[in-house]
């Protein structure tokens, strides 16, 4: 997808996990206990975490993202037959202290300095999001941190994306949403937001209706896409 300058954007809204924060950093930080298993555990953990949100949404059996994250971790550890004292508690604590991707702080600072509103829209619970934002020293940069718990259903339900314009009091066309999850980016576009897919993991495009307005490798490209040349 070719990138073009997006005019009229007044707010930038970011998915949290995989977009701002590196979900692999929890298992990586516990590699002294997990050894060579850490990448596979992280992969299964993330896959099941997302699958459980979709299944709960379809079944109408909502549980918050903290429970889902714990359930997915239990599955990952059981799959690889990893059973070490204290490991589960350590990994869950590390999930509250995920590292942000390297370009995130500078990018957010530049966007805020240019007068754009900044927000997070995430499956995470308010407590989870507050912890990871605080850990990375980013609290002062966000005008809003929005959790799906406000509507009681996970992404990609349209009610989640509707939270953004309601809370920021802006038209959806004045808001640009960013996610590394292709299904999330495509779904946000279908809900009327302008969207850039942050394709950190070099994935193939999804075969689902609607396409984002563009694709970027990471968030460092945003100032050149969103800001007038005089403010970059």
From TrEMBL:
InterPro entries according to UniProt: 2-HAD, HAD-like_sf, HAD-SF_hydro_IA, HAD_sf, PGP-like_dom2, S-2-haloacid_dehalogenase
Catalytic activity as recorded in UniProt: an (S)-2-haloacid + H2O = a (2R)-2-hydroxycarboxylate + a halide anion + H(+)
Highest taxon, organism lineage: Bacteria
EC numbers, comma separated: 3.8.1.2
Enzyme class (EC, first level): hydrolase
The keyword Transmembrane helix is annotated on this UniProt entry: no
Any GO molecular function: (S)-2-haloacid dehalogenase activity
Keyword annotations from UniProtKB, A to Z: Hydrolase
NCBIfam families in UniProt: HAD-SF-IA-v2, HAD_type_II
Free-text function comment from the UniProt entry: Catalyzes the hydrolytic dehalogenation of small (S)-2-haloalkanoic acids to yield the corresponding (R)-2-hydroxyalkanoic acids.
Family of the protein in this entry: Belongs to the HAD-like hydrolase superfamily. S-2-haloalkanoic acid dehalogenase family.
Name by which UniProt lists this protein: (S)-2-haloacid dehalogenase
